Amino acid sequence: IARRWALDICELRKPWIKSLYKTDKLEPLGEAREILKFARAQARKQAANLEHPLVCIDVIEEGIVSGPRAGLWKEANAFQGLLFSDTCKNLLHVFFSQRATSKVPGATDLGLMPRKITKVAILGGGLMGSGIATAMILSNYPVLLKEVNEKFLNAGIDRIKANLQSRVRKGKMTEERYEKALSLLSGALGYEKFKEVDLVIEAVIEDVKLKQQIFADLEKYCPSHCILATNTSTIDLNLIGEKTKSQDRIVGAHFFSPAHVMPLLEIVRTQHTSAQVVVDLLDVGKRIKKTPIVVGNCTGFAVNRMFFPYTQSALLFVDHGMDVYKIDRACTKFGMPMG
């Protein structure tokens, strides 16, 4: 059909419609301007510090107002300008950096294949635990959620349901998909079912003694190949695994709140963590659509290590009597959306 159509145009049996000059899909100028105004507001909201989405809208407007050739000229000129901007260089840097996260010397360069993780257990159904569980079931991992009593367990399950329902409300998920995700979740109050788990993520409060006790229990109840991960944001992993003989499979899996939304996942390895465990967790991170970064076991790991001086500087200015809102505005304006 396409061949016949092309020949018909060539032999002048069909009109040659130049798509550049088609205007049948364009709204009247007044309406078009309203649409562009709305698009600009959306772009500012979604990417407050980026110039190029607004430049794209300007280019489209030029094409509508002054005709297609003027639009193309503006596009060519605007592109040249953006190409040499700092933002462009930085976005290229981010693009390649995100891809470099999957190459970890001493782990991904040893020819190891990730092992299959068929069941995940999560300890603690609080804000973090329920968020991690949500991320897991959304990517089809069966999850066993453990809590200390019935009341906490039900509260954790309700949090997960609320996370999923919010997706349904936003149209990101069908009712059918909601039911399927929820069917992957089961609850537990003891460790009996932990013998069939390949990965455990502990997400309880930041209490060293409690975590040490949990990891000693996990070593007893989980199979010998099971990865023992902690969602701690600040505690030394060697301290957490001190009372175990399983240091080679203890690893940090530090998610960010809300865990089912935020893309970053810090994989924290100690000098004992096996390369196989790192490779396995990188694979899980990718499957649950996170950007996993492998970091060392040091105070604050990577993110909080950067966040500490950032907060300390802000507090120093407050001590010197500076207005809190001014500091917040300066941070936000600089490009830190949290202020």
Automatic annotation (TrEMBL):
Residue stretches spanning the membrane: 120-141
Keywords associated with the record: Isomerase, Lyase, Membrane, Multifunctional enzyme, Oxidoreductase, Transmembrane, Transmembrane helix
Any one GO BP annotation for this protein: fatty acid beta-oxidation
Domain 3-hydroxyacyl-CoA dehydrogenase C-terminal: 300-339
One cellular-component annotation, GO: peroxisome
Catalytic activity: a 4-saturated-(3S)-3-hydroxyacyl-CoA = a (3E)-enoyl-CoA + H2O; a (3S)-3-hydroxyacyl-CoA = a (2E)-enoyl-CoA + H2O
Alphabetized SUPFAM superfamilies for the sequence: 6-phosphogluconate dehydrogenase C-terminal domain-like, NAD(P)-binding Rossmann-fold domains
Ranges where the 3-hydroxyacyl-CoA dehydrogenase NAD binding domain occurs: 119-297
Record family assignment: In the central section; belongs to the 3-hydroxyacyl-CoA dehydrogenase family.
Name the record gives this protein: 3-hydroxyacyl-CoA dehydrogenase
